Amino acid sequence: ESNKKSILITGGAGFIGSHVVRHFVNKYPDYQIYNLDALTYAGNLENLKDIEQKPNYHFLKGDISEVDLVNQLFKEYRFEAVIHLAAESHVDRSIKDPLAFVKTNINGTINLLNASKSVWADNFDGKLFYHISTDEVYGTLGETGLFKETTAYSPNSPYSASKASSDHFVRAYGETYGIPYVISNCSNNYGPFQFPEKLIPLMINNIVEKKELPVYGDGNYTRDWLFVEDHVKAIDLIFHKANLQETYNIGGLNEWKNIELVKLLCDLADEKLGRERGTSKKLITFVKDRPGHDKRYAIDASKIDKELGWKPSVTFEEGLSKTIDWYLENATWLQNITSGEYREYYNNQYN
Ligand code: NAD
Predict the structure, then answer these.
(1) Where's the NAD(P)-binding domain (predicted)?
(2) How much is the pTM?
(3) Alpha carbon of 89 to ligand 1 centroid (Å)
(4) Which atom belonging to ligand 1 lies closest to the Cα atom of 186?
């Protein structure tokens, strides 16, 4: 197996991670893909049912905040590259429990960096630590402007502060110990397998169930949206072609005010569900704003376009339509997830 690249993907049972794992397992049969995931509320092996039997796929259950476990796995499997996605990822949860975010997002990332450093032992040829991050590290924008790779970090939520910190540690390990790294900061993703605490699947689920559609504040918060499969294509390109010790911004060139997005979802879903146009919009209710809520995020993705030739390929209407279809066709997946813990979370959050 020595000629086969051994790749650790963390958080592969989550939303984006499961798309990344599936893509690498299917497209690169010569790579051995190790998916390390603690299976928190957000991790679900159902997301990978279609590839779990593939000979180049291996699941490792474990928590990246546990030092001994992480060191032992690196010694045993001699990973040559890491694609690090494991994280606590939901801003609202970070407001309730910041330390959980420190533990996984900061301590967990440092454990992976230390283990890489120790197993690679200065032989960095062909090695890579690829850290997946978010545009939220840059803070908020006014009506105009775009986040560039050179924009100063200014995180406003415990989630984005923990991600910003992990980005800094990755960069510092590159500078201090020479670890070959690359970081990408991406805007909001959407698509199949996204946990229904996040805006788009939450709204689809509530539209289907004819429940209220909770929109924060005045609904004028603006986000850039990217179809998850376009993010995966960018990750593949960056993994194989990016210049080392660099950061790349990834975005959909697709800004929407939350309220406009929810209305669009209502119209698309009404059509698919055979409901009269306008039916679901009546479910929209404005709820108390999230504290520290960032007004607007938008990405300048010209660096990855120029250097690696990446652009989003799926239009928003196409992506949303595929996503709604997927949630309608996978009612069991949704039901399994929206029982138990999720229901408790939802009731605390919105009722
Ligand atoms: P997710 O919450 O859906 O999945 C996170 C995964 O990490 C889950 O499978 C969970 O079980 C696992 N995990 C959590 N804590 C762990 C731990 N201590 N040890 C091992 N595994 C653990 O998240 P996502 O939306 O797929 O995001 C993945 C990554 O991409 C995160 O690093 C996030 O910051 C980043 N990101 C997400 C978005 C987005 O819009 N979702 C945008 C930009 C960047």
Answers:
(1) 8-323
(2) 0.96
(3) 5
(4) 43
